[in-house]
């Protein structure tokens, strides 16, 4: 099972709403969260290596989240489940919904992105593992599944090096940037994806309360960058750092 989120495209210019309640999403390009693309790619590779027979993509969100699921299907996922809601869903609510889906689907592995690039929460995978009581391996840069042994070997990028964990399946793994390079959906696969099953459900059907637990007080744009200055020598640079910027 792989969780995919529809987010503001990483190339889009982010505009904060004038009332500072959030990011303005009107008429901006939306795409699959890049870390979710990596998670989908990894799930497909697991199936191609015969580690599983089926990849199920799940997305939670408004009607357009179905487009993101079609992309996952075009990349190679076998079927999809759209948890339809127009409500704001925070990471805890997403984790509860994914936990409810996981209890129904009973996957051996749930793959997620390490974070969604819109809110940068980096919470969902961790909370999902907690709710299910499953092992977790976050920030994976390498995954080797041993389905017969019921384990996975996961290499994680940690400060100053790599850590390798063996987790017992079923487990939750979140993808880091270097796990793989996601494939592009080819035109024939985009056509084929239209025939794949995309089922729909809702938080009510899954019996999950998605009420927000966090309140966003204010969203602000970073301060505009001031122009830089050229210095003539290293001595002048040191002088400015010491006496103007007062950072050394
Ligand atoms: P976050 O904790 O919000 O940074 O998100 C981490 C990961 O959780 C994402 O890369 C997705 O795999 C998953 N996720 C978060 N929100 C959603 C959503 N609305 N639908 C599906 N998956 C989600």
Automatic annotation (TrEMBL):
Compartments where found: Mitochondrion matrix
Transferase recorded as keyword: no
Coiled-coil intervals: none
Keyword Metal-binding carried by entry: no
GO MF, one annotated term: electron transfer activity
GO terms under cellular component: mitochondrial matrix
Keywords of this entry: Electron transport, Mitochondrion, Transport
Family under the similarity heading: Belongs to the ETF beta-subunit/FixA family.
Protein role: The electron transfer flavoprotein serves as a specific electron acceptor for several dehydrogenases, including five acyl-CoA dehydrogenases, glutaryl-CoA and sarcosine dehydrogenase. It transfers the electrons to the main mitochondrial respiratory chain via ETF-ubiquinone oxidoreductase (ETF dehydrogenase).
Record-given protein name: Electron transfer flavoprotein subunit beta
């Amino acid at each position: 099972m792989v969780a995919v989120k529809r987010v503001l495209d990483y190339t889009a210019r982010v505009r904060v709403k004038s009332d500072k309640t959030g990011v303005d999403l009107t008429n901006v390009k939306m795409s699959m969260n890049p870390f979710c693309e990596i998670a989908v790619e990894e799930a497909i590779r697991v199936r191609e290596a015969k580690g599983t027979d089926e990849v199920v993509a799940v997305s939670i969100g408004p009607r357009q989240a179905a487009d993101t699921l079609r992309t996952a299907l075009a990349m190679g996922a076998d079927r999809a489940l759209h948890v339809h809601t127009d409500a704001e869903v925070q990471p805890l609510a997403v984790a509860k919904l994914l936990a409810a889906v996981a209890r129904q689907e009973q996957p051996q592995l749930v793959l997620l992105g390490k974070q969604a690039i819109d809110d940068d929460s980096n919470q969902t995978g961790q909370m999902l593992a907690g709710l299910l009581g499953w092992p977790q391996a976050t920030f994976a840069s390498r995954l080797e599944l041993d389905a017969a042994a019921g384990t996975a070997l996961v290499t994680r990028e940690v400060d100053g090096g790599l850590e390798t964990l063996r987790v017992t399946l079923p487990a939750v793994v979140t993808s880091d940037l270097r796990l793989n390079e996601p494939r592009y959906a080819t035109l024939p696969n985009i056509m084929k994806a239209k025939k794949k099953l995309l089922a729909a459900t809702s938080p009510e059907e899954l019996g999950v309360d998605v009420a927000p637990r966090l309140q966003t007080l204010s969203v602000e744009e970073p301060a505009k960058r001031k122009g830089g200055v050229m210095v003539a020598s290293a001595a002048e640079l040191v002088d400015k750092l010491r006496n103007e910027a007062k950072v050394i």
